[in-house]
Amino acid sequence: MSAIVEARGLVREYRMGDEIVPALRGVSLTVDPGEYVAIVGPSGCGKSTLLNLLGVIDRPTSGELSIAGERVDRLSDGRATEFRLRRIGFVFQRFYLMPALTARENVELPLAEAGMAGTERRDRALELLDYVGLRRRERHRPSQLSGGEQQRVAIARALANRPALLLADEPTGELDARTGAEMIGLFQRLNTDGTTIVVVTHDEGLARAAERVVHMRDGEIVG
Amino acid sequence: MIATLAFASLLRHRARTALAILGVAVSAAMLLDMVMLSSGMRESFRSLLLSQGFQLRLSPKGTLPFDTEATIRSADSIVAIIRARPAVAAVSPVLGGQLHFPLAASMVNATALGVEPSVQGDYELVEGRNPSAPEELVANDALLRALGRAVGDTIHAASGYDPQLRSLSGQRVLRIVGRVRFIYLALDQRAAALPIGTLRAMNGPQSEGRASLAMVRLRPGADVERERAALQRSLRTVTVISTSEALKQVDERLSYFRQLAVILGAVSLTVGFLLVTTLVTVSVNERIGEISVMRAIGVHRWRVVAQILVESTMIMLVAAPAGLALGLVTARWLNSILARFPGLPERIDFFLFQPSAAWTALGLLALSGILAGVYPSWRGASLPIATTLRQEAVG
Lengths: 223, 395
Hints:
The complex is a heterodimer of chains A (about 220) and B (about 400). Chain A is of the alpha/beta class and about 220 residues long. Chain A has one domain (about 5-220): 3-Layer(aba) Sandwich (Rossmann fold), CATH 3.40.50. Chain A has seven helices and ten strands. Chain A has helices at about 45-55, 75-85, 105-115, 120-130, 145-160, 175-190, 205-210; strands spanning about 5-15, 20-30, 35-40, 60-65, 70, 90, 165-170, 195-200, 210-215, 220. Chain A starts with a strand and ends with a strand. Chain B has two domains: about 1-50 and about 255-395, no CATH class; about 60-235, no CATH class. The chains are: A alpha/beta (about 220), B alpha+beta (about 400).
């Protein structure tokens, strides 16, 4: 079975005035289907940069990156957007739900973008909210939900188009310990159900729950 | 989903959106007024000139009707020549002049129009009847008020008055047989109309056979411009103008008005445009995190653009009806002020409402709403996703 993520020699540099600052210095990483990988390391080590490259919301300065068998390191904006829509699920530390939309509408957003018809979209959104235990909160807006509930809606949104890869950036960073533990359980359940997950975290509990932990320091994988 | 998100974004800051809509409504009202002003007077003149069905006007060579005190010589023979043409349905000669009415302690002066009552097109009868005998006249309300007379009364009138000698000439005792509204005269202008022969006789030999103007009504289907050209060729002592020619003259004289209206309309539109651009730009700046997340989860760039354009257009389209209603109210108010301008015909409207004016204003507002969203939508759609999310996370 071919890998979901195949990264070879990824370099990402930022220009800060006249200076070029390397954020990734030749990272290579392979993630197999169904794997649950946690990327850990000190702040500024490049883990979020790596996650952004894996999520195709940023481009490497050099190196090769394939996700689900497709080269993504030089995609045009339109194709990268389409790729994210169909193949990637994103979960952010700050949830980033659309405040004007209800929980169900937030989950429907990527489905609508993918062109799914109204009734089918609604059913799929409700199915996902059911999966994360929030079916009864479908009409609530983000401001009416707790942090843990918002993060679960964000996970449902990320799963909407059945992505090949679920990426999470510090998903427990804004949650209290008890809610964070619930979230760890949810990620484990997702993985058990077949979802390939790459998570960036400082949370030791979340990292421990992963099958594999990748350590980063100064833009490189060190273990 | 785009409309839902756009609508929800506008509702998020209701007071701010309401104030912006109010501001745009005011500028829309101004825009409508200026669109109405730019075409209103012209259309108003047009309907005024055509109101009695006369398509051609003859005035002394080189002048416009009633532009000078010059008169047409041998007007009666000219009228007879015109009446003999097969395309002509009616000819109405008009002689302009003055009437003086000596009262016990004062003198009332008025504009006099000598007409052929059976074919005249200068007034509408409100009460009574047309003059049918030489010693009869009709007068408007302003004159009747000044004279303290009513229909059925007789009045002493003169066509000439020498203020130094305090002597009157061309005196007659006339009977008031009708109360009328003059079409081409100002509302408060005292005026009377009497048979053209009577006015000529009162004026003396210098008015014999003369007229200030002749109006020509053509038969249905007649080619107005062809008839005008034919009359002009055969009548060398007069200028023949058609309604469209007259409108061209009006257009030239009103060009400053139109330029002013266009400039003020453009300013109004620009103010509305900048207001919406500012509001939507501020709104986009507040939502760059949300927009970046939308982009990150796979929402296409064009959809972000569309959402922001819908927001700006929604503001314009909600404000437009309110603005158009406000524009109609202010137009009526401004019209009532401008109608008091001395010498203007009572029926001239500066702000004439035409559906095309409303559609023009609405179209301009919708277009400016779309354009107002271009900058903020470009800004929203071109945000670097990863950098913006990192900055938002730090912020």
